[in-house]
Every structure is written in C-alpha cells, then in structure tokens.
Amino acid sequence: MPVDLNRSLEFSRQLVDWVRGKGRILIFCHDNPDPDSLATAYALQHLFLVKAGQEATIAFGGIIGRGENRTMVRLLEIDAVKVQDLDLDEFNVFCAVDTQPGTGNNSIPAGVRLDVVIDHHPLREATALVRLADVREDYGAAATLLFEYLKAQEITICTKLATILFYAIKSETQDLGREWAKADREAYLSLVPLVNNHILYEITHPQAPRGYFSSFNKAIESARTYGEVLVFNLYDIEVPDMVAEMADFLLRVDDVAVVMGMGRYNGMGVLSLRTLREDLNAGDLIQEVVQGIGTAGGHGMIAGGQIRPFPEKQAQQHELEITLTGRLLEALGLEKSPGLSLLTS
Which of 81, 234, 239, 269 is in Cβ range 3.0-4.6 Å of 65 for a Cys bridge? Predict the structure, then answer.
C-alpha cells in the first residue's frame, strides 16, 4: 500500500472512530464554494454515513454563483445550506474542508471550535488547535484526500460520487495541468471509468445569462498591463467567483505571467490572483498585497483575498485598485507605472 494511502487509512480510521456516536455533524465549505470544496464535503458526508452511521449537513456562507457549480449541485443533487439558516447549537461536531480557520474565506463563527480540518492549502497556525487535521499542501485538490479515504476504507464509489470527485480534481488542477501531484493523477485516472459523461458535459457546458458575458467586456476594458503583470477591476458584481473566472481567462494574454483581479460583492472586496511563474507563491504574494487591509490565502499558482468593507463609490474603488496594484508591483520588485490598456498595448 502506498505511503500516502497508509496515511489516509490511518487518518480516516481515527476520524470515523472519533465521530461515531457524537451526534449531528456540520461540514463547513468555504464561502462561494467551488467544485473542490463541494465535492470534498459531499464525500466526507458519505464517509460518515457509511462507516459511522452519522448524518452530516453541508453548509456555506456565500452563494453558489458560477454556472458550472450551480449545474453540478443540481444534477448531482448536492444538498448544501446556508450557515446563516442553521442553529449551530443543534450540532455536536464541526468540520471544515478546503478551508481553515483564519483564512477569511469562510463563515465559521468565532465561537465555533472546529474538530476536523481537511485541506490542501498551506497550514494555518489556528489549525494546530483542531482535534483532527489532515492538511497536505502538496496535493492539487482536497477531493483527492477524500478519494483516498474512501479507497482506504473500501467504500464503493458510485457513479454520482465519482463524477463529483472527478470534476473537482479536473477543475482544481485544470485537467492535471496546474499544481497536481501523483496522488491527484492516480485519483483522476481511477475515477475516469466511473464518471457519468453526460452529466459531466452538462456541468462543463452550462448556459449562462447575458450578464455573464458583460463581465468579459468589463474585465477586458478595465485591464491594464505592467510588463508581465495584468490587473483588472470588475467593480460591482453579482457573482463573487466571477473575479476568479476572469483571472483565469486573462492569464492567457501573451507575455502575461501574473494576473490580479478584483470586484465588489455585497459590500466586500473580492480578489483573485493567478500566476504562471513557478518561482512565486501566489498565496504569500496576495497576503503581502492586502496586509493590514484584508485577508487572503492560497498556494503556488492560485490565491484569493477579501477586503471588508470595500468602498461603495466607483472612484474610491479605483483608488484602492491603484493602491493594491502598487503593492503588487513593489512585492514583485517592479517599478510603479501608469500601465498600458490591454486593448492598446
């Protein structure tokens, strides 16, 4: 048995033994959960039910806005509820997946002490206080950890569960093209024969409202380049994860290696950072950019941040964009400049 699977066997065994008989379980995703967060939560819920006979509730604090994610939740019947709609006193065990305390991207109340953390982002200091934590930042997806738990516990992976886990690994690693590990590849290849291809196609090709396409226009028109750096501002947005989607899209621009995007959602600033440079750590970089004014986290090539509150007036949002851009350029050792419009550069 491979070393990593031994580790997964030991951790999953401890986890199941500990939760058995504890009562109701709550699994926190991060706010505005992506496929990796949702799949990890769903698979953990399944693990608890099969091996411990314990029911678990999946919760998140924001919205599921991206078309692919909404389609995934609908077709694969993922039952996730708003944290704000729950009475937390009814739960006895608290878990967090694909996030950790102190990251700023979850709605875990300050008074809740987590019992379990499963994640693939850099280890946070507060996670050391958690009873059971499995944090492997060398993994490309948290869903890979749950695949290993299920495999180690000899749980049959049905078509629906396989499709959820496969799509999570596929999207998080960009089809094993970004920040993947051997464990991710093994899980990806093991799940391929079990996937419902029709559902997978529906998830990856969702219909989108007209407003979705206007975001591309806003991102392109606002984008400015500073050598290999590109910064864009969507200003007020209806879907928070649109910033991340536009950051991925604009990373395809010729000669651009670092992209930082931002937008304002429900009074909060949403930031995304992407890089192609292997010598950079996007998580460390964005934390330096928002130091003192926001929270952030991430890993090698992908990171995100939050600024609360974010200015309401567009002129003030633009001023903050200038400040954040200056910090980014300084962190990269580049000279500050007015930048060039993407459409004319």
Answer: 239
pLDDT number for residue 219: 96
Cα–Cα distance for residue pair 115/117, rounded to 1 Å: 7
Residue 284 neighbours by CB under 8 Å, 6+ apart: none
**pLDDT for 66:** 82
Domains, the chain, ranges and CATH? 3-204 (3.90.1640.10), 211-341 (3.10.310.40)
Q: Name the nearest CA neighbour of 191 among 157, 145, 242, 146.
A: 157
Quick: pLDDT tens for 290-325. Answer: 999 999 888 788 999 999 999 999 999 999 999 999
Name the amino acid, one letter, at 105: N
- Across the range 250-264, mean pLDDT stands at 97
Per-residue model confidence (pLDDT) at position 345: 56
Spatial separation of the C-alpha atoms in residues 36 and 97, rounded to whole Å: 9
Mean predicted confidence (pLDDT) in 279-287 = 93
CA angle (182, 51, 186) in 5-degree steps = 10
* CA distances (Å), origin 199, targets 39, 164, 188, 256: 15, 10, 17, 34
Q: Kindly report the average pLDDT of the chain as a whole number.
A: 93
Q: Terminal CA-to-CA distance of the chain, rounded, Å?
A: 54
Q: Please state the pTM of the whole predicted model.
A: 0.86
User: Could you give phi then psi for residue 182, rounded to 5 degrees?
Assistant: -55, -35
